[in-house]
Amino acid sequence: MITPVRTLIVAFGASVFPGLPALGAEFAGPDAGDLSQPGPHQAAWTEVTVRRPDNSTFKAVLYYPATMPGSGGAYDPSAAPYPAISFGHGFLQAVEQYQSTLSHLATWGYFVIASRSQGGLFPSHSAFAADMRHCLTYLESEHANPASWLFQQVAVERFGMSGHSMGGGASILATVADARVKALANLAAAETNPSAISAMTNIAVPVSLLAGSEDSIVPPGSNGQLMYNNARPPRQLPIILGGYHCGFIDQDYLFCDSGSISRPVQLALTRRVLTAFFNLYLKNDQTVWRQVWGPEFLADPAFDNSRVEAGLELTPAQVSLIGPAGQPVGADLALKNTGWVADRFALFVEDQQWNTSVAPAQTGLIQPGETTTVRVTIEVPSGPGANVDRTLVSARAERDGGTRAFAVVATTRRLLGDLNCDGAVDFGDINPFVLALSNPAGYAAAYPDCDRGLADVNQDGHVDFGDINPFVRLLTNP
Q1: Using CA atoms, how far apart are residues 288 and 275, in angstroms rounded to an integer?
Q2: Residue 158 needs a FRET pair 20 to 30 A away by CA distance; which of 214, 314, 331, 413 works?
Q3: DSSP for residue 328
Q4: In what order do the strands lie in the sheet with 312-315?
Q5: Are 89 and 167 in contact (CB under 8 A)?
């Protein structure tokens, strides 16, 4: 499903928002930093032994925030407790193939535990998924063990799942079976036995199925797309343009594929997407929401982000208002719950220069398929300053505290002499001014969103030839 917001954003540059600057200029958003770069910690790792319920064991690699990087580096407890992510390796792939990505997450304040099990020619996908869950149980146990260096260091209520290829499919199986998991974000997830595609129907947490457009080993069309189709919202299938299957690992292996972008570029994009997604859902970091659901995400030229469904909609996705200086103007937006469970939604405004409010700030419980109305009010200022203001209005789902939909409200201050309503009085207003004087009906047809009264420059209540000289003075000596 392509949301109305997505339809709007992909048309940037095609006059969907007339006069709207390119993303990154007008919609810079809060500075969350470059999430493809390392976070505030160093990263270290150690091998641990995980015990299954039947007392058999397997090895896993635990990546963690550190003050000294590398194998066995000193642990950094400064921001503990840390959320944890269980990661599943691909078929015949060593955990070390993912060291750059897993270390990166550790620098951003995560424990990442990666099972070494099921590394042979005939892996059991269900057993691998179970081991990924046992890895989380290991962290729970260590968190509760006063003798462990992990004692009270793990945010056991904030677990995530991830993985690549076979491990991506196994991460789906593991998420279905584990209510502790709060978010799932994997890489080129492959179909498994039992079926990860079928299992998607039972996942009740936010899902991001990152894939590469040129993956010839696990093509998105026969894997990620089918998983996405079966997923409940909030769901995403971000596809890296030019990305490929082996672009998610650190080194090539026999029979690797290739893509039209380089591995360093693909890994940087992967790090950014994973970090933003987990920061939003496991750390409640609201500064990154726009990198997960906002205009910056949807318009990112490195991705095909057409497969996105938040489970809520704000419409219309773009509103244009014109108001007189010193007066309020407003617009009604329809907030619809397009998800599968009843939810409440909080409303926010960002990017505004003018005094802007939205009501209600918090909705009541909205059932699936139901719609409520929210009112956006903008106080158009008088005096000097910009004549156009743009506000990003967003609604956030209470159920997961991270998923959002948004709309943009563009407001133009009505200025005497601004007959083309572009927010400025300049030579572009001459022809509209002449038309307003000579042919009122023609002006109304040519500028349906403008007000002919703006031609009453001398403010005598009439649009006539007495306005010509004041209009000329306004143009030449504003």
Answers
A1: 9
A2: 314
A3: E
A4: 312-315, 328-337, 371-379, 356-359
A5: yes
Contact, 53 vs 60, CB < 8 A?
no
- For residues 451 and 436, the answer to whether their CB atoms sit within 8 Å is no
Q: What is the pLDDT of residue 31?
A: 52
Judge contact between 400 and 376, C-beta under 8 A: no
Residue with tokens 């000596």: 477
List 336's β-bridge partners, or say none.
313, 371
Mean pLDDT of the chain: 92
Short-list 248, 130, 278, CA closest to 187: 248
Query: Is 17 within 8 Å of 317 (Cβ atoms)?
Result: no
Q: How many CB atoms lie within 10 A of CB 38?
A: 17
How many CB atoms sit inside 10 A of residue 39's CB? 19
Q: Which amino acid type is present at position 210?
A: L
* pLDDT tens string 194-208: 999 999 999 999 999
Phi, psi of 82 (to 5 degrees): -105, 140
Strand partners, 303: 240
Look up the pTM and report it.
Answer: 0.86
Structure tokens at 434: 């002449």
